[in-house]
## 1
Amino acid sequence: MDMYGTTADTETRSGCGSDDLIFFVNGKKIVEKNADPEMTLLTYLRRKLGLTGTKLGCAEGGCGACTVMLSRYQTHTQQLLHYAVNACLAPLCSLHLVAVTTVEGIGSV
């Protein structure tokens, strides 16, 4: 499986269950076995992964302090699409087979 999860067959071979949430953060594969359906991406990034570059500003999606990039492979068009989303509003459980790029994943000095 590549970092965009283009083959579901690989999921079965890797030992991941069908209820596992699989996604990528800054190129690192994350397998969350018991994802909290009420947790936002912002909370997960800051509390579980320790990535504090994505900030909580207004908690309503208006300020942009929590903006991250999501990359999703579209099988029907065979294209990789990139979206800017507000992590404070994005449910963690909506990220199955999605690549997330935070400010930490952009680069360093």
## 2
Amino acid sequence: MINMILIVGIGGFLGSVFRMFCINVISKFFPYSISFGTLFVNILGSFAIGLCFSYAQNKGLSPLLKNFISTGFLGAFTTFSTFSYENLMLLQNGDYFNFFLNIILNVALCLLAVWLGMIIFK
């Protein structure tokens, strides 16, 4: 059990650092009202979790590696709490267009990314 906790913790550390890096880089290129950095991270994380679970289901993946990737790295990498906060800020600022646009883009594109990730190993 201690091995699993350490593996998930290491994955979480790496995922959160990579998230910070990605958001900072994307935000420099797309400094708009909605956070395209968060959108990018959510899409990439959704695609990666689709890949991970599809690969684990079809090819097999050790529980340790599966938890490192999905619970640790991707759990820290994807930013649904940040997504929620950013949407609340848009809503409180009365920016309804960007509020709805951000929700629609994140949900639709992340669902698409999970599906694409899953079909790769079928």
## 3
Amino acid sequence: MKTIYLIRHGQTLFNLQHKIQGFCDSPLTLLGIEQAKIAGNYFRDNEILLDEAHTSTSERAIDTLQLISNLPFKTHKNLREWNFGDYEGEGEHLNPPLPYNDFFVQFNGESQEHVADRINKAIQDIVFSSHNQHILIVSHDAAIANFYRVWESFSSVKRESSIKNCSILKYEVQDAAFVLKEIINHDYSHLN
């Protein structure tokens, strides 16, 4: 059985500044670096041997992956965050209420349906072309949330909060379905 560890990148400068960050990028903060190291320790402490690694092409995701694991990795454009168009780099207070649906299309961004299809296809392509059992994938908040929504009905484990920086969503592939088995949220309070 294949297990996928889907992880959001560590805290970035734009996260700290409450700016909309999709296709645009900003570096990890010192806290984000520590979050990624703690996520990496989770695998070592639980003696989970990862077989392969994949990440978004965004610098924040690549840097997070390199702090979690020293595996060689592949980058994938389709693992990137939602494209928020002209809202990129603006304050989060400008976001409309959830769900966003097609809101960002009028501002040269993506629809929710498009980002959900894109991230789902990217993860399926990675998993179903692999012969390995334990796959690490680093992506982004809204992208992961939309992947979660696609497969939500297959799992008894439900999200009760937003996807935090360096949260780990552990999926198992069962009969070609992605079943969420666990959400690992680390305690970073000692870092603040």
